[in-house]
Amino acid sequence: MRRIDKIEPFRVMQLLERARQLEAGGRHIVHMEIGEPDFSTPEPVLEAARRRLDSGQNFYTPSTGAPELQQALSTWYAGQYGLDIAPERILITPGTSGAFSLIYAVLLEAGESVLLSDPGYPCQRNFIRLAGGEPLNIPVGPATRYHLSAELVETNWQENTRAALIINPSNPTGTLIDEEELALVSAACARHGGWLISDEIYHGLTYGVNPPCALQCGHAESTIVVNGFSKHWAMTGWRIGWVIVPENLIDPARRVMQNIFISAPTLSQFAGIAALGAEREVEVMRQAYDERRRYLLDTLPGLGFDIVVEPQGAFYIYANVRSLTDDSRAFCWDILERAGVAITPGEDFGVYQSVQHVRFSYATSMDNLKEGVRRLEQYLRK
Ligand SMILES: Cc1ncc(COP(=O)(O)O)c(C=O)c1O
Question: What pLDDT score does 375 carry?
Fold first, then answer.
């Protein structure tokens, strides 16, 4: 099969398209399928961007990023996690999506594999395939809080495996990996001479817990951390993220960056510096997400949505719908058509027990969530 033929579409987009069609025909749809903050970017960030725009200084930055943002992130890591990270190790990318294309291009030779959790964020499989690699999707469940464990890494590591990926908190489950387990996963990767890649894009969006940065757990010299401004700072459209690499990867990464995107968007990089100072605004959003999370945790189980591990991060709830259907895809489509509520079927996140699961996103207002729950209740009563 040609590489491009292995690239899968985001299936939920079809559901979203149908939802938009229904809306165009006058129906009101409650959107609980979209994984994008419903908040606008905080005002101080907008102000900083306006100032930068007016300055006329919107040329390319160095490929690895504006030194001012690299320095600001280095300071931010010291404040948030007590980590001392040299600014030049923090490479600025167009979204974390840009960071992943970059990292897999740097790390993978054709046919080399990366261990991923199933269920997991679907784009990862495709990033790896585009770099010529092989995603190894490992079934995970409640026993490991839907994360890879050190044992799973050990048993599934192949001769040609180069890395294991942890997304913490997880999309689609919102669950966190135990701190000790993360250290053990890091040690397992190091033992095999491979990398731990940690996607921390939902850090900061956690409720009652503060997960450590993977660089604080275990083997920092073989750990790569990816993060970005999209979720915590509500900046999806700014396309700005970063990746922290060890010294020896800076040069190879720079060569790839020079070629594939020259530099991340300059305006967004300077907006990012302001975002790091917008703590108050970000905290207001976090509290709103937490309130919505608690509302759904209180109401969904009563409707038959079984939430086996309490999600403590991101804005997702992954629910088992075994008692309601044996085909979550047909179930989600029917709910859309008949109840006007959009949720994501498990098939978007993998194959393991996907027909038994759906993902709710609570990146929408409390009023919408209440209306969504009311409609689901009515639909399920019939
Ligand atoms: C786990 C995870 N990683 C990465 C991304 C990509 O984010 P962006 O490219 O906007 O930084 C997403 C987006 O939904 C995500 O859920």
Answer: 98
pTM for the full predicted model: 0.97
CATH number of the domain at 272, please.
3.40.640.10
Q: How many domains does the chain have?
A: 2
Domain boundary among 278, 300, 335: 278
Same domain, 209 and 325: no
Report which protein residue has its CA nearest ligand 1's atom 14. 35
For residue range 251-280, what is the model confidence (pLDDT) as tens digits?
A: 999 999 999 999 999 999 999 999 999 999
The pLDDT of 120-137, averaged and rounded, is 95
DSSP string, 133-191: -EEEEEE--GGGTTS--HHHHHHH--TTEEEEEEESS-TTT-----HHHHHHHHHHHHH
Query: What is the arithmetic mean of pLDDT over 66-89?
Result: 98
- Supply the range of the domain harboring residue 219: 43-278
How far, in Å, from the CA of 123 to the mean position of ligand 1?
9
Pocket around ligand 1 at a 6 A CB cut-off: 35, 95-97, 121, 167, 171, 199, 201, 228, 230, 236, 241
